[in-house]
Amino acid sequence: MSETLQRRLEILAYATFIAVILILPAFADIFWLNRFAKYLVYGMLGIAIAMSWGYSGILNLGQGLFFGAGAYMLAMSLKLASPTSLAQGSDTPVPDFMLWNAEPGAPTDLCCITGGSWLWMPFQWVGFGAFMGIALPVLLAFTIGTVIFRQRISGVFVAIITLATVLLVRLLVIDLQPITNGFNGLTDLAWLTIGGFEFDPYLLATYYLIAGILIAVLIGARLLVATRAGLVLQAIRDDSNRARYLGFDVPKYQTFFFAVSAGIAGLAGMLYVIVAEFASPTFMDLTFSITMVVWAAVGGRNSLLGACIGAILINTIEASISETEMFVEAWKAIIGLIFVLVVLFLPRGLAGFAQDASAWVVGRLNRGEGSPASAVGQTRNQAAE
Amino acid sequence: MSFNRRSFLKSSALAAGALATPGIFHRAAMAADEIEVGVLFSQTGGLSIIEKSLSDATLMAIDEINSAGGVLGKQIKPLVEDGASDPKTFNEKASKLIIRDRVPTVFGCYTSASRKAVLPVFEKRRNLLFYPTYYEGFECSKNVVYTGAVPNQQLSNFIPWIINTLGKKKFFIVGSNYIYPREMAKVSKILIEQNGGEWIADEYLELGHSEWGAMVNKIKSSGCDVVLSNVVGDSVVAFYREYKNQGISQADLPICATVTSEVEIAAMGAEYAAGSYTSFPYFQAIDTPANHAFVERYRKFVNDPKAVTHHAMASSYFQVFLWKQAVEKAGEATPEAIVANVGGQSFDAPDGKVTVEAANLHTAMTPRIAQWKADGQGEIVEAYDHPVFPLPYVAYGETQDNLFCTAQGLDTSKLNQ
Amino acid sequence: MVDILFIGLSLGSILLLIALGLSITYGAMGVINMAHGELVMIGAYTAVLAGIYLGANIFVAMPLAFVATALLGWLIEAVVVRRLYGRLLDTLLATWGVAILIQQAVRLELGLTFFGIQIPGLGPGLQNVSVPEILSGTVAIFGEEVNAYRTFIIFVTIVLTVLTWWILYRTPIGTQVRAIIRNPQMAAACGIDVKRVNAMTFAYGSGLAGVAGVMMSGFKTVFPDMGTPMVVDGFLVVVVGGVGSLLGTVAAAGLLGEINGVFASVTNDILARAVVFATVILILILKPAGLFSFKGR
Question: Are residues B70 and B179 in the same domain?
Fold first, then answer.
């Protein structure tokens, strides 16, 4: 398949996907729209994972850390804006849970109701929460990335370090109950309000807010990986030593893309808070972080669009099976089986399958030209291991 | 960003308008000759062990009501959803039941984390949750009917009894690192000091943790003479086992627990808990014909001759009947009508008489204390002779004469005093 | 102080018990087996079922569990893992799927619940195994009363570790395994049947998980989800110890166990867990290949 044809097919795939999520509201009721909005957020996580795993070869088993950090930052702002926080009878809003975690006789004021509650003060301005929702994950990723990539740590060791980090942070968030509300997480949040408009999670406008951001992220990410930096990154993934000998500052590129991926995950976390109306330490569970990686694997780790669709697809399937009366108890087994089968028989995920299929069709049409695209794809895939 | 009550109401109305007009909001549920209700517990994941039994008890109650002719002449149709032990899933399934299926009521949730995750959906969509678990209090939602015990119903007789009857005065408080145990510890400390005891430690372990070596060693060397356990979930099992295996006898240093129920006892093996105490309104060992019949029916229903019954499960069962009475009184099954009529409803439950208090939608029930025996059953050693009024804000000074949670909602001015 | 060190030793031995099988499969085969925790769970259920149907105690259950999980491991290797050699991260994902399948199989009593058939001992509920009288309570060691069951776990762990060492370093098959650890291609070129050895290695590692499960059943709850947290702890130990190094695994388990035990006693369990995670991260950053490691893989 010629380069231009492949490119045209890819553009077609992106355009189709974007068109589908834009016209979806015409076919779905408000409940499914809210649900799809959540899945679009998961799709954004898929993009974040494809970027760090597929394009950089960095398997992050702690993506939940960045998702959770983004979610908590915005949730803190929305918590302070909720009616219950405003009704505590003090000058500044105070989250209700701080009252039951406070020592008896503590002043009902955000500055000093419990140790560390002053950290919440800037979050009274929702813009700060939204800013931190991206800034904190990026900062965390930058710090972690700088340390581990300078040490030339790669492969499974990155996976284990990120995994240990997310578990450590989760533990601390639960333990710092007076200021995080521990295991219960942040609930009873206000709706995000921009210019007087409230983004009720069950409004069409909220769906389009999420869909719009997803489309922007998808296109932005796709353009980013096609830049020179993105190409260097893929060269590093395929052979980091060679890239190093060629004079590229390998850790710099890896850290940059790791941080971009974290920023996307943080953004996804914020959007999730808007549609689901809560933030919880379970966002930082090991299971959730691994599950995200599986979504990306099913969709195709080497394709931003594939990973995104994979996440949306699996969640839709999961919801449908688990709500079928017969499978209420067995749905997890079915999901497990799908994981195994995809890894065994579609190693490059649905995206790889689609590429192969289109190459085969085009090959048949052109006769004799064969399917070099799939061969290229396979070598690329092997190199990514 | 400002957010006041008026704009909140306005936006809720807007939301309701966006969904459908209120009149046809529950159309699906009302038009047919059956009433659909949601049943939302974990069928999978770590918590399904206990939540499955809550789900079964709910379905059994629905089954019994249906065989007796249903409610308002209609059959109840349960829509069972799986929360998968994950707050994210609970949230999603709750919105499915409320917004898609338009059920007028959901029976469900076990952990506080899952309840907190679904609460915004119920409050902003003005639906109704019947919540069967004992919990930490500090909640005053007009969209939840609470049928489990709150701290004052588990502790107000327990602590004085430990100090006066057992004669134990030095408490080691231990719990899972979670809201419920921490809140229970807070109430306990107040009661311990009021009754002339002292607490010498207040320690927590990660939720779901099962490594008790260091903690039990601490208990051993702390010099306490009683352990107050607010440990939750399967950690309970590892705790009692380690306790015995480090050679501590329940006779010298008894564990007095607020969570350990028949389920955990059966799971750990009865010999490990024999001699320890638990406070709950309901025990399988309650010796009344009503309870014997209940246990019998439940075992038949789940097709397991050895199935145990426990507190949250008994609440899961009787709350369906309270709901039915409210629907009948209201003459219609809408969340508003049910809430308006559920207050004051009484029912002769397996635990005895239970009443939903109109002021705070919590349930008055009879606290009991049991000592566990070698056969895995509790022997009731102490019980109130009347149901006790539920006080969800007891840790903050709430009394029956000075309610914080009233029919008008939470009076936050009292909270700040 | 002795009691605190004993707790640390006990924690370390439990970690090692779980990590031992992982260390072998990961070191020799480059397979990250996320279903290892589920194999531990199957081992625990073997003890439960042996107790119910055979009236057997945990001593009898140990060899039974070894055989049962080794067979299951052999099956997983033949059906899934074999197709994924060299694709390290794919084995992680595929075995994660396998783990979910095994969990659900136990929870749904192998699917028989759909036909209304119940198997006592399986299902979603909590199960327990009673511990023989001789192992409950305390024993006196060096004048200190210590938990008998924990002492037994330490003993079993030592026996299994020595046995594994003996197999690896004193038998022909062990030599082949070590050759594969160093360089699989070269080993194959020297006429070693890598596939057969890998299958046996995987089965042996799985069998060790089964024995670990029996030991766990004596003091933890047995239920379908019990394995998931264990596999994480196991992996931290293996990676910190250094891939393919038995000595490293032993050292890492001991180190992390003692850190956990001492910090839990001096401060609290939550902080101790946090310190363990922080130690793991620090070690991996400073010594990315682990405490003890071979060059080569």
Answer: no
User: Does residue B378 sit in the same domain as residue B355?
Assistant: no
| pLDDT tens digits, B188-213 | 999 999 999 999 999 998 887 888 88
The CATH number covering residue B219 comes to 3.40.50.2300
Is the Cβ of C101 closer than 8 Å to some Cβ of chain A?
yes
User: How do residues A300-323 score in pLDDT, each as one tens digit?
Assistant: 988 999 999 999 999 999 888 888
Domains: count for chain B: 2
Q: B385 and B238: one domain?
A: yes
My answer on whether B163 and B14 are in the same domain is no
- Shared-domain flag, residues B146 and B59: yes
Give the DSSP H/E element, type plus range, for residue A294: helix A286-299
Q: Are strands B226-230 and B255-257 parallel, antiparallel or unpaired?
A: parallel
Q: Is residue B22 part of a domain?
A: yes
Domain that residue B44 falls in:
5-150+288-366
**Considering CB atoms only, which of B48, B244, B271 is closest to C124?**
B48
CB contact under 8 A, B205 and C270: yes
Same structural domain, B374 and B338: no
Q: Which residue of C has its CA nearest to A326?
A: C114
Residues of C in contact with A152 (CB under 8 A): 288
Do A298 and A335 form a contact (C-beta atoms < 8 A)? no
How sure is the predictor about A368, in pLDDT bands with cuts at 50, 70 and 90?
low
d(CA B28, CA B25): 8
- Whether B395 is covered by a domain: the verdict is no
Residue B234 shares a structural domain with residue B377: yes
Length of chain C: 297
* Phi, psi angles (nearest 5°) of residue B398: -70, 135
| Token output for A347 | 């190693």
**A197 in B contact zone (CB under 8 Å):** no
Q: Is residue B292 part of a domain?
A: yes
Which residues, including other chains, have CB under 8 Å from residue A273's CB and lie 6 or more apart? Answer: A71, A74, A75, A78, A189, A279
Sequence-distant (≥ 6) Cβ neighbours of residue C189 within 8 angstroms = none
Pick from C90, C101, C113: which is nearest to A337 by CB? C101
Judged by a CB distance cut-off of 8 A, whether residue C97 touches chain B is: no
pLDDT band at B337, cuts 50/70/90?
very high
